[in-house]
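question for whoever is on the cluster today: can someone run the full assembly for these? three chains, 1287 residues total. i dont have access anymore since they changed the login thing
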Amino acid sequence: MIPAPFAYARPTTVDEALQAIADGGEDVKVLAGGQSLIPVMRLRLAAPETVVDLGKVEGLRGVRDDGDAIVIGAMTTHSDVLADPLIAEHAPLIAEATGTVADRQVRHRGTFGGALVHADPAGDLPAVALALDAEFVIVGPGGRRTVPASEFFLDYLTTAVGEGELLVEVRVPKLAGSWGMHYEKFNRVAQAWSIVAVAAVVRRENGRITEARVGLTNMGPTPLRARQVEEALAGAEATAEAVAAASERAADGTEPSSDLNAQADYRQHLARVLTRRAVSTAAGL
Amino acid sequence: MTAVEERTGTPGPDKEIGKARRRKEDARLITGRTTWTDNMVLPGMLHLAVVRSPVAHARITNVDVTAAREAPGVVAVFTGRDLADEQGSLPCAWPVTPDMVNPGHPSIAVDQVNHVGEAVAVIVARSKAAAQDAVELADIDYEPLPVVLDMEQAVAEGADLVHDHLESNTSYHFVFDAGETGTGGDTEQAFSGADVVVSRRFVQQRLIPAFMEPRSAVVQPQGDNYTLWSSTQIPHILRVMAAMVTGIPEHKLRVIAPDVGGGFGGKLQVNPEEILCLLIARRLGKPVKWTETRSESLMTAHHGRDQIQYVDVAADREGNILGLRVRLLADMGAYLRLITPGVPALGAFMYPGIYKFPAYRFECDGVFTNKVPTDAYRGAGRPEATFAIERIMDELAVELGMDPLELRRKNWIDAAEFPFTTVAGLAYDSGDYETATQQALELLGYDELREEQRRRRESNDPVQLGIGISTFTEMCGLAPSRVLGSLAFGAGGWESASIRMLPTGKVEVVTGSTPHGQGHETAWSQLVADSLGVPFEDVEVLHGDTAISSRGLDTYGSRSLVVGGSAVVKAADKVIAKARRIAAHLLEASEDDLEFSGGKFSVRGTPGTGLGIQEIALAIFAAHDYPEGIEPSIDAEATFDPENFSFPHGTHLCAMEVDTETGFVKIRKYASVDDVGTIVNPLIVEGQVHGGLAQGIAQALYEEAIYDDDGNLTTGTFVDYLVPAASDLPHFDTGNTVHAAPGNPIGAKGVGEAGCIASTPAVVNAALDAVRHLGVQDIRMPLTPERVWRAIHQGGDGGDRAPARSNAQAVDSSDAPSTSGGAL
Amino acid sequence: MTPITVRVDGATYADDVEPRTLLVHYLREQLGKVGTVVGCDTSNCGACTVHLDGEAVKSCTVLAVQADGCEVTTIEGVASGGDLHPVQKAFNEMHGLQCGYCTPGMIMASIDLLEDNPDPSDDEVREGIEGNLCRCTGYQNIVRAVRHAAAEMRGGADGHVVPAQVDTAAAPHVVGQA
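^ ran it for u. tokens below:
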């Protein structure tokens, strides 16, 4: 299939991009890597009036050290993420999850920011961003603002990036102390989206788990934090039994969807099993 | 086997048969110098896009294509009404019973649509984009009718009808009863006297052939002649059928299958769009092209399988099988396509498998539903039969408390018993099930894995291990024409070949067997190089164009080498016979004194004399000196019609890990030993087995065409219809035993479908073997993790999958904010 | 229409394209590079894989306008002079193709993989080509082919890849021709 016709804008600066969005009419789509947008346009499930291509906008690609955080440009490709030494050092969870996204070709084009703003409930990076307490830097006609991950994912395919705005970069705080991380993904075939996945970030000291953050993929219309698990783990002994007990809370309060790949009760079961596995690995058990 | 000894006896280094020749076909395929149908560009060519029904069952109350006609670049729009008088009905070549009901199959719907995706209008435009844009402008009103999807409901009393002018949703009731045909005893009696009867209901889910090259057709009208290029397996059959459907005289229609990107039965069809291309090219007098999108392909190209099998087996306590009873519901879909009704009927003869059943009865109802028609898909009837028998043998073994292999051994045909006529009336040709099984057990490392299975059981490991067995046979080499006639098939099963000896000594082989990836060019060259004693490189194989290869019945049913290759060998024999007369004349010797070896005629007992067949080709081209009373040509043509099917067999073993916590299954090891008769090219044979395994395993684990309650195909893209990738499949350890087929001069049995037929039950049996101690008796295919988990933890067979929104459908612009930031 | 300039397989093309034109359609229909094919709508099958500025991408999921100023290599441009690329040769040698429809994409993806990982294991190859679907081969001979090519590209076959039965009468487990 061929996409429906659209007007095309190729800005070179963020200001130009914002202007292009403003001028684009009723239905504007921002094109980052295009690896979700273009298939949807080919199937004519989306037929935007204007496509604003960020491919030539300067300053959106790359990772930099910003003291207590690393900053990942929204247009940094998944391949760049996988090869980046700062991410490998400070947030290996991002690389681990990114390595499970689609396939090599898609990772060459798809972008970190695009995946987050697309906010597919089955996408892998949103839960990771939640677990790492990332912050989202958004620019718009009204200027620049920073939104914490906990306030970024609003609903199904909906984020805090408002009309006429752009995500430009994501700040990932560096973690002090002895942290372990793991992304446990469950799907049927290699290319498939996650049926359920769990991102675990665990701080372990003196045989105890001092802090745990658990992000859930595809357990609802938005990525979730498994707060009950986190609470149960905080201060718990770093043992298989303690982790298993805490993980029983992983699906509490979730309302996952039922679809071709899994019905809701099975997703909830998976969340518990995968949380146990993710946390155990992250805690080095 | 003596008949083939000379050709297939120990292949020496100078023999081409048996050599792992690298394929001739590859040179163009690895460099992108290919001729796929969609590559074709002709001056003035117009592009078609099809407006398709979004509803499964409805009356068409109004068709308004005014806006589409006005759209830029649109040359014409045709509705069903526009073409109603000339479109005829798509053919069904296999009326399996005399009273089979065929509702007829329009290429484009006129008054009523019967499945989602049925054509309701065709846009003809200057460009593909313009045609697709205008599709959205067609305005069609539908008055909904009740949607019939479930076969068991469709055959119930008072069911809604797919075709309301018919009396029921049943197309036919086909019965094979061994007692009545005299090939076995009375089935009811066998069951009534049995110690043990095991009954199961198996579901053969609907599959999609999913060839990689989407279908495409191009038609060029030249005066009253038409050339149709199509991505088809069957240019010859298509030509005959398209001529009959459209009224274009057969001799005015040329069909070309250029490079064809896979078929697997999915391109064994006379497609509505091929007919529409012909009709529209005839109307407009312009060349036209139609190429489907993948979504169109998944939605509208015919599907496969989709049967419900009720299987009963009877045995005594010692494990001697006494009888087999099979009742099928086979989903036809909304219409009967080329061999739709024949697929389950073909399977009827394979349910007894390799076992010596004294009694057997088979009944099948072909059932109409509001889905796309089913038809041939790799194995066509035989995978379903093999699955049923290999699954029920395991169930019987469990019931009897016997080792599943011991039960099989006790009941299979011994090597010394060949040829063996089965309860289904087939004469199995050759084989040795015990040897193949022993080889397979060694390849798998059976004993160690059984030991590991025991350890995992004892330690209550969350990951359990199981081993599945499938000892199978199948009927290949379709087919003896007389047998097809007795089964009411609308054509014969012969194949044609001709050999043209060119003046420079090069050889053109014309085959009626049209390849789409099988490597005919290479294998046929090997056959001819051996027969004629010419270099492999000197042989060119021509195919797939009815103007070049005028006679043929094409490629399906693992028939190409067995039937088509045999025709080539027979043609070569004729070339040699004709050349022998010329050689005798030129060598001034008696024909009886000539021997032919290594491409040369020489006079027996006179070393140094000799005349190469390639030299004779030049001599007879010049034709200056040849015997009186014969024609100056050594070219020859042959048609081979086999007298029997051939029966490949093999033992497939699968070791499967099941994560009992998540239900995730993973093949740990897969080993198979197949007997496909004489192996002409071991690389190609191995490749066919690998590919078949991938598809058979995919049926067991991944693939399923799912319709929602309204009759929409939910698995409408590759996001949801899970064709496995490299990382989803295991390494295969494959081997062969070789028992030449006595029924053809090559000794080949056919290999195209073996892996696909054998593997599915091996995989399912393996998964069940891993979790049977947890109380699991069956798990419905495909073995999704959810089904496996439910079967373990909730009982039953894992149940239906929720046909709700999928990932592909999830991304709907109407749900998304109008200016979302960068997409993934 | 948007003007673009693209270098494809060593030649430069300047064209006006509709923004909605996919790169693969631009290659096939405007440049005649029909060696690159389309197999799906959803970026799953990988048949359309080409290299865009040296990286494998699915050309059905890239707009032609996005390739403006870039260098594209297709299956038609990987052989240098008269010599096939080692990956092309290996696909032939190891029988890594049957119908050949997925082959251009499979080869382009494999070349990309070997640039990152010159000595992949079987599993690494399988994962590396997970974005490319083949319906014919069951992948095993593709894996062999990629590893065979890898060995050759590293400087001569080092023997740890077992070639598919080379010129033997039949597979290793054949029990004598009857």
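summary bc i know u wont read the tokens: Residues 103-116 of chain C form the longest helix (14 residues). DSSP finds five helices and six strands in chain C.
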